[in-house]
Structure formats: structure tokens, C-alpha cells
């Protein structure tokens, strides 16, 4: 198949997922065309079946807001017609579903029907999409999609609750390449981070309010009060300055490292003992799944789709949003008890294998086949 993938190229779950999906489809022989405004973060290296089309957004003094959506739709049209795409798969509803609809209408004038699939990722539904500024367009373009997928049952339910959706939504979970994230022994790296054998706690996110990173720091404070420990904060985003202030206020600067955005996440995960994701909402929690594949138990909130991934008492523990004391008590219990840690590590790895890339990619391929069959009669 010739597949066009549209996503946010930045450091974030939906873009990472879309890029890994494209790479996996290319490995299976499909021709994959990424259409984005910059090279997606995990799209590195040459692959014979992968093509990248950059969306250029020309500016003009009249434009206070350069019309990105028009540029994106026009680029989609160009790629659909010239690369003879069979379908488009857009990730994150805003604005990708409405731009895909526009492109679909334009290529129809050229006598082509191009189906498009919209994958809902989370905040496009639960936060931004609900805003009345966007809701009519989001509702319309989701309903116009040839197929809709959500990354968890929770997100599917949230979508039906928040929007008058007229079609079914298939749940296709996030996935992980368990070989890539298999835990490695990296003694020198571990020694550099925790020179005195301290336990290593890890958080990875885009440091937005929804992630509740201050809770991570507060949990860590309670842990470090009772045992030697280090915290690695991976990623970056708007809340970072206030989190740095909190670290200083709590006297934790020597034990917390902000390591920025990391491409070799699997190495960081390999040296970690516990992953913390206390989000206000999380449709799935891809980073938590990647941690589990690296045998790192997860402490998470029980918000959104997280309980579908992090099984309480099996792969880690989940707590009510904001219950820092309970999260800290769980963290201390795990880190003090090697048997419990080993048992949760085993549970985490087993759970990750259920979301193995080889189990999930065929679900997308089957959906593409269905959509193409249905398009034949349009
Ligand atoms: O987590 C973020 O804020 C980034 C966001 C995105 O769209 O890039 O991630 C969302 O999509 C991921 C991939 O499907 C999910 O694993 C994340 O749980 C989801 N984030 C939220 O729902 C907050």
C-alpha cells in the first residue's frame, strides 16, 4: 500500500507513535509518506520505503497567523496525486482530520477518492478538541473520517461522551518494540548517574500541566528522605522553570537531573528502577509502556486509560490523581523490597509483550484493507 501519514513531528506520544507505525509499515513493504512541517523526531536514518514531505508555510505581511492548515491540505493533495497514495492516516484530530477532509474534497475534483483514517490520541479530545472554538470542526471531521481509531477504551468512551459521533471507533492500542526496549546491562551509565548505588527513579514527559510533574518531585522527596535515590527527568516543556524552582525549594537539586529530550530512551530506561507517571489524564501512556518493556515497574495515577496498561499490584501501582502520599508509600515499598521489585519487573515485562509491535501493526493493516474495500464502492 501507499500510505500518507500526517502527525505532529515534535517530541510527544502521538508523533512518536505515528512515526514508529510508519517505520514498521515500511519494514513490511508498504510505501510510507510522512507529511509534516519538520522531520519527526524518531524518523532518523534512511529507509528505502520511507519518504518525507515537508509542509512549507509561506508568510506574508498580511498574515498575523500563517495559514498552516491550507498549506498542509495543499501538500497532502500534491502527495496524494503525485505519489499515488492509497490512503491517508492522520494522527491527532486537530487540525489533521479537517485538513484531510479538505484534501479529500480537492482530489475528488480530480476523479480520485482518497480515504482517510483519523487516530485520536488524547488531548485532541479531552482537552483542546472539546473547546468550543474547535469542537464543531473536530466533530465534523471525525465524522467524515473513513475510519476512526482511539488508543484506549477510555479514550473511545471519552470521545462518545464529548462529541456527537455517528460512527464506530475502533480501539487500537499503542505498541512497543520490545526488542529495542529490552533491558540492557549498562553499569557505566548507571554508575555515572548513581555513583553510590542509589535507586534511580524516572519520569518522561513534555512537562505540561496535565502531566503533574510537581507530583513526581514531591514523591521523590519522600523517597529520598528515607533512602539514597536519584531522579531523572527526561523531556522538556512549559512547566520546567516552575519544577526547577520546586526542586530548589525542597533542597533536591543534587539528586535530580534534568536530562532534556533523549532519543536513546531505551538506555535511560535500562538503568531505572521505577517509572512515575502521575498524570491528570492520560489516554494511554506510551512512555509507561516503553518503561515496562525495559522491566521498569510503573507508579501512575489511575486517570484515563492508564488502568488498561498499568495493572495495580502486577506491573506497578496506580493511585488517585494527586495522592502523592500513597504514590510515595508504594515507591518506598517497592524500592526497599528486592523480591517485590523483581516480581513487578516480571509483571511489567509480561504486560509489555501484550502490546508488542507485531500484535498491533496487523490491526492497522486490517483496518486499511477494510477502508480500501469500502472505498471501492464510493
Ligand atoms: O502526552 C502528551 O501530552 C502527548 C500526547 C500527544 O498527542 O502527542 O500523547 C497522547 O498520545 C499518546 C500516543 O497515543 C498517548 O500514549 C498519551 O497518553 C497521550 N497523552 C495524553 O492523553 C495526555
Automatic annotation (TrEMBL):
Domain Glycosyl transferase family per the UniProt entry, residue ranges: 189-348
UniProt xrefs under InterPro entries: Glyco_trans_1, Glyco_trans_4-like_N, Glycosyltransferase_grp1, Thiol_BshA
SUPFAM superfamilies: UDP-Glycosyltransferase/glycogen phosphorylase
Single GO BP term: bacillithiol biosynthetic process
A Pfam family annotated for this UniProt entry: Glycos_transf_1
MF term (GO), any: glycosyltransferase activity
Boundaries of every Glycosyltransferase subfamily 4-like N-terminal domain copy: 11-180
Name of the molecule in the record: N-acetyl-alpha-D-glucosaminyl L-malate synthase BshA
Organism expressing this protein natively: Chitinophaga barathri
Gene expressing this chain: bshA
